[in-house]
Model the fold of this input.
Amino acid sequence: MTNPIYRFAFILLLSPMIGGAQCEIFKSEMGDVQQQMEQVHKLTDSLSTYAEASAFGATYKAAKEDARQAMILTGLALGAAYDAADIAEEAQYQSELCGLDPVMSHAIDAQNFTIHTREQMEEAYELAKKAYRARKLGDITYLMRKSLTAAQEAEAFSQKAVYAAADSHQSCNHSDVSLSL
Done:
């Protein structure tokens, strides 16, 4: 194997296997991004019930308890959003190693949408905490309305991230890569 031509031929023969392995790692990470973003979507859907009840609460005690539940669920959704953003960053790196343009493009979209989801969930969580600490019913309802709006925006971004991750996952196919140079 000292001849450079043999080395080059050997590398060419192994490149589809290496690309395939990178693709499997990437697909696994994109699957994890999808799961985390679906979790954000489910939690946001659940917290909306409590946030709406708190945002339009008639009594201080009920609004405060609903704000507490919304804050807990928002915190869980925020954790899932952080996980998804971290995984999406790694997946985006793996997509560059993959080398296919559609894969890289969709991976960048998925990463951007997970970052936007995380940012909106951070805002929703901070507002929910403030609402829970508020001492007046008017403050609780105002802050929970703002928190609910941020959570709904995060939910929309999470859905976009799920679709981008799915598109990226489907685009990662090395069977169309030819060995001709």
